[in-house]
Amino acid sequence: MADDYDDDDDGPEVVKRFMFVNRKAPYGSIYALESLEVVLISAAFDQDVSVVFMDDGVFQIKKGHDTDGINMKNFSKTYRALDGYDVEKLYVEAESLAARGLTEEDLIVDVEVLSSSALSDLMNSQDVVISA
Prior knowledge:
The protein is an alpha/beta fold. The chain has one domain: Hypothetical Protein Ychn, Chain: A. The protein is built from three helices and five strands, in the order βαββαβαβ. The chain has a five-stranded parallel beta sheet with strand order 4-3-2-1-5. Helix 2 (94-99) links the parallel strand 3 (89-93) and strand 4 (112-114). It is globular. The termini are far apart.
């Protein structure tokens, strides 16, 4: 009797749109680092991954982190590796940048700056939105 199951054919690959929303400062809690790790893991599984930085989350990608005085590893340079994982959709909320006196030039990675209403529309188009 022939087996109808083919080990080489797992069926059509399903790609979901995952958006990770980073709202927390980079240090003082585990949220930023854990979020970055989940982004990298999701991208490794060939999902459509985008990342949003808003509120104090914009500080995660600010240039010039110095963590010597707080005994924590500076992981900000890891954001530059996102491109190598095909995570190229990085967004920053314009209002969050302005409220913190930052500009796009203050950031270590290339981002698309969007208004909160444009980000809301973008979030509504995702399959999964995870906020940290």
